[in-house]
């Protein structure tokens, strides 16, 4: 760490100088860097898949769908939209300003710090990098240390494909992150939990640095009933894919729990059970159709959610755990206590509670 900190300020000064030189503002530079990212994604695809399998046990199909494929689309969108994004736009003025005219010119902010998360270690690192480069900024990327293979691959490949005087990767744990936050930035983009988000926002306040926080939460899916069998299959697939298929539920936009009309709950449960087996197999760990839990700490956190006796009794499907391989099979619960931790904390794993509700339709007068 001492060696990284020693070289940090000279590296940041080099990045600031690259921005001050004006080269990052040029359309030609932005295009060349975006094309470099496309080449990286194409030429390093197999190594990306290998790193994701090593860090999270992701199947290559999931890795392409959620990371390489979406990143490729984002880069192509940025390339095709760059001219429009860089163009000025006429601004409306009040009548009091007549006969003046005004235009809005998009300008980069400067030196951007991106702190990414471990659950989509390439997607959540490179998506903000794409935006920062397209906007004409210089960039420091700090990948998550909890996905070491992915972090290492980013640190090794980005200097090869991008301008290393304007885009740098700095690896390290919490101590390096804290040191980076003491520095002055023109923009900070953070993906992670609310606790660290507060630390980032507090540090940014010292310099009034603008911050984007991409945090988690408890996102429910709300069910009523279905009008056709086609609707049933489509919606159930979307729920299961959004919960268990996206990094085994370790995603901030994953469905956290389901709210369903009490009378429809038995039908929903049966549909979820049958479609879970169809989508992920009888043994998802052996078929490698689901990612694993990132590390033992997070595995034990999820295990503790289920170890509550009142929660344990609400399990209606799954519940199997393999601590040696950090794997938890798709687990469905029916009406766990609302005051239990599983219903008050963000789950961030392959546990899906169903909460039944009663309601009546109100007739229009």
UniProtKB/TrEMBL annotation:
<dbReference type="InterPro" id="IPR016163">
    <property type="entry name" value="Ald_DH_C"/>
</dbReference>
<dbReference type="Pfam" id="PF00171">
    <property type="entry name" value="Aldedh"/>
</dbReference>
<dbReference type="InterPro" id="IPR012394">
    <property type="entry name" value="Aldehyde_DH_NAD(P)"/>
</dbReference>
<dbReference type="InterPro" id="IPR016162">
    <property type="entry name" value="Ald_DH_N"/>
</dbReference>
<protein>
    <recommendedName>
        <fullName>Aldehyde dehydrogenase domain-containing protein</fullName>
    </recommendedName>
</protein>
<dbReference type="InterPro" id="IPR015590">
    <property type="entry name" value="Aldehyde_DH_dom"/>
</dbReference>
<keyword id="KW-0560">Oxidoreductase</keyword>
<dbReference type="GO" id="GO:0004029">
    <property type="term" value="F:aldehyde dehydrogenase (NAD+) activity"/>
</dbReference>
<comment type="similarity">
    <text>Belongs to the aldehyde dehydrogenase family.</text>
</comment>
<dbReference type="GO" id="GO:0006081">
    <property type="term" value="P:aldehyde metabolic process"/>
</dbReference>
<dbReference type="GO" id="GO:0005737">
    <property type="term" value="C:cytoplasm"/>
</dbReference>
<feature type="domain" description="Aldehyde dehydrogenase">
    <location>
        <begin position="23"/>
        <end position="358"/>
    </location>
</feature>
<dbReference type="InterPro" id="IPR016161">
    <property type="entry name" value="Ald_DH/histidinol_DH"/>
</dbReference>
